[in-house]
Amino acid sequence: QVQLVESGGGLVQAGGPLRLSCAASGRTFDIYHMGWFRQAPGKEHEFVGSITWSGGSTFYKDSVLGRFFISRDKAKNTMYLQMNSLKPEDTAVYYCAAELSPGSGYDYWGQGTQVTVSS
Q1: Cα(68)–Cα(63) distance, rounded to whole angstroms?
Q2: CB–CB of 31/103 below 8 Å?
Q3: Residue 106 has pLDDT above 90, yes or no
Q4: Each residue of 23-73: pLDDT tens digit?
Q5: For residue 22, what are the contacts with CB-CB under 8 A and spacing of at least 6?
Q6: How far is CA 78 from CA 6, 24, 94, 118, in A?
Q7: Which of 106, 82, 110, 105 is nearest to 94 (CA)?
């Protein structure tokens, strides 16, 4: 089992930055990949970006490329999502998730943290 807890959400003005954290506990040694997802009211759950836990390779949704940056601190078992130049359309509940084996899918999810970007 892996437990994930997000933090860092809040209200920010358009153009501003915000950093989210995702703290992992439990079988963290088994984590292969971690990702960020978001869901806005009335919209589909969508992939934002991800990072391979070992090598640190990152992948991003096109609309956040160059604005959002994912990193991880393996010693702290924590993943981060640095969000810059935020837009009102980035408003959503943000979730982190963990994949334990390549291709197994995201098996574990956090409870989510609200990000609201005011115009």
Answers
A1: 9
A2: no
A3: yes
A4: 999 998 889 999 999 999 999 999 999 999 998 999 999 999 999 999 999
A5: 4, 5, 6, 34, 36, 78, 79, 80, 81, 96, 110
A6: 10, 6, 15, 28
A7: 110
Query: Cα–Cα distance between 90 and 38 in angstroms, integer?
Result: 9
Instruction: Report the C-alpha gap between 116 and 25 in whole angstroms.
Output: 27
Q: What is the mean pLDDT of the chain?
A: 96
Percentage of the chain modeled with pLDDT above 90: 90
Cα–Cα–Cα angle for 35, 113, 26, rounded to 5 degrees? 55
Do 22 and 96 touch, CB atoms closer than 8 A? yes
One-letter amino acid for residue 53 of the chain = W
The model's pLDDT over 42-52, given as tens digits with 9 standing for 90+, comes to: 999 999 999 99
Tokens representing 45 are 């759950």
Say if residues 94 and 36 touch (Cβ distance below 8 Å).
Answer: yes
Looking at residue 29, its pLDDT comes to 87
* Residues paired with residue 79 on neighbouring β-strands, in sequence order: 22, 72
